[in-house]
Each structure stands twice: as structure tokens, then as C-alpha cells.
Design brief:
Layout lengths: L3 H17 L14 H15 L6 E5 L5 H7 L4 E6 L2 H14 L3 E5 L12 E7 L8 H10 L1 E14 L32 H10 L3 E6 L2 H14 L6 E9 L3
Parallel strand pairs: 1-2, 1-4, 2-3, 4-5
Antiparallel strand pairs: 5-7, 6-7
Length: 243
């Protein structure tokens, strides 16, 4: 049974992203708009998929469907889950508009409603920092992967002290401020730490990429749009379930 404090954490997380859902895609960094961003994300998704075609993919913390739509557009069978119903409603609408057949479900990233060995790929984008039990969540994501399946985590590490992020940062919001001390990965972790965690969880062929092209494309866009970005490392780490 969940502890009361844990329930409050998850309620606050869902409330925050539900509140932001209507304007989420307009917030900087939550969409692909420039040719540089398109090229960079095409490469990143290629790294996540690992050259496999027509796979069953699970997008954990799918939000308004960014990765789900990109994967579906490349011919993969996609399921997206999120904890905020408002996000899921927008994702479903975007998929319908695009003619994409994606299954979206309301679910907890730390307690997936799927049988073991259900997917070939589990992918997340900036989800670990929002979880009260991120290491356990990684174990749960691995559980639903088939032998030879791949886990790909797109994440980052803040290079500023807590409280010094951009004013619009979720970490400084009314929902997150009271629960930050219950989120172990709140400011992100170094890429090497995620790699080590993957290996400790039994994944093999663990590797990573620092997303230099994504960072460059976003910096160029930020300059053009007058955005001031705080320093942050970004990366993708992937590993495979032994086959």
C-alpha cells in the first residue's frame, strides 16, 4: 500500500503537469520547430531504436505525445502512458489529427499495468527526476522488456544550484516546491551514473550519447527567440536486456 506522503507526491506531480498541459507544447524545448531540431531528434530516435524496424515501443511519461508520435511516424507500434489525464487527452487528439494509431493509457511510471516481456523498447524523456522511486522505476521498465529489448532514457543534469533555475522551471512551481526533498533525482544525474545504474540492473551493451546536436539546435533556437537557457547537460543512455 502506498504511504500517505507518497500519495501526496504523486498527486502533486499529476496536478502540475495537468495544469501545464494546455500550454505544454508552446513551452520552450517541448516541440520540434527548426530544421536543426528535426535533424538532431531524428538521430536521437535512431539511437534509441537501434536500427530495429516495426517494434513494440512503450513511451513512459509520454506527455502530449512527442516521442510517441515520432516513433509511430517511423512505423513502430506505440503505447504511451502518463500520470496526467490532461496530457493524455492532448496526446490522443494529436495522434488522431496525424492519423497515427497509438494506444494511450493513464498509468503510473513506477507500477506499469503490463505483463512482463511485453515490449521491444521502453523510452522516456525527462521522467526520472519526477519520480519518488527512480531506481525502482528503472527495474519496472526492464521488467516489461523482452529478451534483447532496449531501455532508452533521455535525460539531463542541471548545472545550477536548486532554486536558481529559470523562473518557469517546474522545480520551482507550487506543486514541486513542497515535494522536492522526496524526489531523489530532482536535479538530474550525471550520464555516467545512469550508465552504472543500468549495468547494476543487469542491462548489457550499455552506451550513451551527450546529445551535442540537440543542445546546439536548442541554443540556436533560444537565441533566435530571445530565450535565456540555464546550463544543463543532456544525454541519452541505452542498454539491452540479455537475450
Amino acid at each position: 500500500m502506498s504511504m500517505p506522503s507518497e500519495n501526496i507526491v504523486k498527486q502533486n506531480v499529476a496536478a502540475h503537469w495537468g495544469r501545464r498541459a494546455a500550454h505544454f507544447d508552446q513551452d520552450f524545448g517541448h516541440s520540434i520547430r527548426t530544421p536543426g531540431e528535426h535533424a538532431a531528434w531524428d538521430r536521437v530516435i535512431g539511437l534509441a531504436v537501434g536500427g530495429r524496424g516495426g517494434i513494440a515501443a512503450l513511451d513512459v511519461g509520454c506527455g502530449t505525445g512527442f516521442l510517441s508520435l515520432e516513433l509511430a511516424g517511423r512505423g513502430h507500434r506505440v503505447t504511451g502512458i502518463d500520470f496526467a489525464p490532461e496530457m493524455l487527452a492532448l496526446a490522443k487528439g494529436k495522434a488522431a489529427d496525424a492519423g497515427a494509431h497509438i494506444r494511450f493509457e493513464h498509468a503510473d511510471a513506477e507500477n506499469l499495468p503490463f505483463a512482463a516481456a511485453s515490449f521491444d523498447l521502453v523510452i522516456t524523456r525527462h521522467v526520472l527526476w519526477t519520480l519518488p522511486h527512480p531506481e525502482a522505476a528503472i527495474g519496472e521498465w526492464i521488467r516489461v522488456l523482452r529478451p534483447g529489448g532496449r531501455l532508452a532514457v533521455i535525460d539531463g543534469q542541471s548545472l545550477v544550484a536548486p532554486g536558481e533555475e529559470q523562473a518557469a522551471s517546474a522545480r520551482r512551481s507550487a506543486e514541486y516546491a513542497p515535494i522536492g526533498d522526496q524526489l531523489p533525482f530532482l536535479m538530474g544525474k550525471a550520464r555516467e551514473e545512469i550508465e552504472a545504474l543500468f549495468r547494476a540492473k543487469g542491462l548489457v551493451a550499455v552506451a550513451s550519447d551527450p546529445l551535442a546536436d540537440v543542445i546546439m539546435a536548442q541554443n540556436e533556437r533560444a537565441a533566435a527567440e530571445g530565450e535565456a537557457l540555464r546550463p544543463r547537460r543532456r544525454y541519452i543512455v541505452w542498454g539491452e536486456v540479455p537475450g
